[in-house]
Amino acid sequence: MSRSTSAVPEADLECLRAWCGTHVPLTVRQGTVSFEVSSSVVTVVEHGPPRPGLADPTVRVIAQLRRGPDGFWSLYWADRDEHWHPYRPLPDSRSLVDLLAEVDRDPLTVFWH
Fold first, then answer.
1. 99 φ, ψ (degrees, to nearest 5)
2. How far is it, in rounded angstroms, from Cα 89 to Cα 112?
3. Residues 6+ apart with CB under 8 A from 14
4. Distance separating alpha carbons of residues 16 and 69, to the nearest angstrom
5. Per-residue pLDDT at 4
6. Got the DSSP string for 52-107?
């Protein structure tokens, strides 16, 4: 479920695959979580069943992780218009585990709303 023509290290991609594999979207109670990679940007996406009366499955962006040239990852959240904003409560990190744990906790309800 991930495309990889990226500047993302394989170890980080493995971390993302493992994390996504353990998640079922709480908002729909069924479906999957996956990610898409474009260069050094990873977008986490929730896939759910079609809404009543619609044929297409629902797809919603959850978070974005951006890897800088220094190797640090930054976490971003999307507003309802899918404009990305830096997630300020957490500093950049070399560890995706720390940032993904914050997505799980979602104390500001900006990821799993």
1. -70, -40
2. 16
3. none
4. 19
5. 42
6. TT--SEEEEEEEEEEE-TTS-EEEEEE-TT--EEE-TTS--BS-HHHHHHHHHH-T
Joined tokens for residue 30: 């069924």
Residue carrying structure tokens 């050094």: 40
Question: C-alpha distances in angstroms, 71 versus 12, 29, 94?
Answer: 11, 35, 6
**Cα-based distances in Å from 18 to 58, 96, 113:** 22, 12, 22
- Rg of the Cα atoms in the chain: 14
Q: What is the pLDDT of residue 26?
A: 55
Contact of 21 with 44, CB cutoff 8 Å: no
HSE (side-chain half, CA atoms, 13 Å) at 34: 11
Average confidence score pLDDT of the chain = 88
